[in-house]
Amino acid sequence: MTHLRTDGVLTPAETRVAIAYTLGDIGKEVGSRLGIAYNTVVRHTQNIYDKAGIRRSTNALVAWFLSENYSIELKELARRIGAAVLLALFTLTFNSDDQQIARRTRTRRRNEYEYYEGAF
After folding, report:
1. Separation of alpha carbons 76 and 79, rounded Å
2. pLDDT tens, 96-114?
């Protein structure tokens, strides 16, 4: 793994969680990708928010991580827009036609996932 500017701020586990978020994963997907429990992902995410001094938002986390490591200086609004655009680009890049796309639906007490072939 290459050395990042945030290595002095974040632990290696927190860095892996932040990278997973920048790749477009959310919550349980991060845990699945890294092979850790969802509660561990939540704890690492809260630690990142506290250490970075950012509001509790995945978009803010992605914007902070990318701006810190790649010297992208953005104002808060521009960070939000930039994070949304980058998240969309990463999502489109990593969701190729042969992968399944999941859409979460909420029914009573459990989550169910519907899978679709190909991209939207």
Report:
1. 5
2. 544 444 445 455 555 555 5
User: Is the pLDDT reported for residue 119 higher than 50?
Assistant: no
What are residue 117's phi and psi, to 5 degrees? -80, 140
8 A C-beta contact, residue 119 and residue 95: yes
Tell me, yes or no, if the pTM score tops 0.85.
Answer: no
Chain centre to alpha carbon of residue 75: 20
Report whether 62 contacts 22 (CB < 8 A).
yes
Backbone angles phi, psi at 50, to 5 degrees: -65, -45
- Domain map of the chain by residue range? 5-95
CATH for 5-95 is 1.10.10.10
The tokens of 7 are what? 């290595």
